[in-house]
Give the backbone structure.
Amino acid sequence: MYMKKDTGLLPFIPMPRFIIESNISVNAKLAYGLIYNRAILSQINNWIDNEGNVYVIYTITELAGNLGLSERTINNVLNELEKAGFIKRKRKGLNRPNYIYVIIPTGVKPINADTKLPEYL
C-alpha cells in the first residue's frame, strides 16, 4: 500500500534531529531513540525522581534484545551516549537496573503546542 494524503502516522520511535546530526555511532543513535521513547512513556507514567527529573528503566539485556546487539555492544553504546552528554546513568544498587536520564543539550528547544513546525522540518 502506498502512502496517501490521508494516511495516518505509523507506529514510530521518535529520533531527535540533534541525535541524527551528532557524531555518534548508528547503534548509539538507535539506542538513544529507544531510550527517548521510553522517557516519553516515563513522563506519562510519572516516573519522576525526587529532583523532578524523568528517568527510564531499560535493562542492558532488554535494550540488546530490542536492537539485536550483544550486551557488550550495548554497554559500549551506553558509554558512548554518556560520554557524548546525551544520557546520564545512576546506579541503583546490586542486581537493580540503573536509572537512565535523557539529557537535552543546551540550545535544543523542545517542540510544544505553540511551536511552528516548519522551522523544525
Summary: The helical segments are 17-20, 26-44, 60-67, 71-83. The chain is about 35% helix and 5% strand.
